[in-house]
Prior knowledge:
Radius of gyration: 19 Å
Strand order of the largest sheet: 5-4-1-6-7-8
Order of helices and strands: EEHHHHEHEHEHEHEEH
Number of strands: 8
CATH superfamily of the largest domain: HAD superfamily/HAD-like
Shape: elongated
Number of helices: 9
Mean pLDDT: 92
Amino acid sequence: MPAxxxxxxxxxxxxxxxxxxxxxxxxxxxxxxxxxxxxxPSDLWEALDGDPPPDxxxxxxADGFARVSDQYGVSVDARRLAxxxxxxxxxxxxxxxxxxxxxxxxxxxxxxxxxxxNGPSSRQRVKLDALGIGEAFDVVVYAGDLPRRxxxxxxxxxxxxxxxxxxxxxxxxxxxxxxxxxxxxxxxxPVAWFADGGEWDERWNEVDPPAYVLDRMxxxxxxxxxxxxxSTV
Length: 233
């Protein structure tokens, strides 16, 4: 059996998914602002620069909408759109990834369980409460409230310190190669990458392969309770 003293999870797209579509939120922002729509959700995601600052997400979104409007050669009230975006998005509208509840139960039976999420506490606590897992973790690190987020090792190290667990004795479970796999590896933590049916892309060749690849979240129970040497479950 793998000798893991604790299991740490990512939240978004690892344990839960958003039920609102990107289109609902994006075009809802225009509707609330009473502005004729321009562009697409992907235009906004590409225009946004890095992770939003926890202290001023409205300005962050406004900058993104301004870049989209410039791209299409139109003038809009970007701040009204940002406010419309925040009024439209419902962080309570989340549901479990298939198999996530089984994975959490297996981890809890195995030992201490932690959560490391790049979102701020003001946004992520709502999701945990909506899922009914607000008390499911022995430690929660809201990296969005820290000076440095994943993929920096700081949030991972904070969780390890709180649990008094060595990095090579923990397992981190997450879906993002850029943030989860790279960040955990920088902290010296073995990773179970939730591939969700995807495949390792050649653009990640400079990243060390994860210790485990989970095609389904329920497969974590096999990792924690099996001697299997295969990396994909």
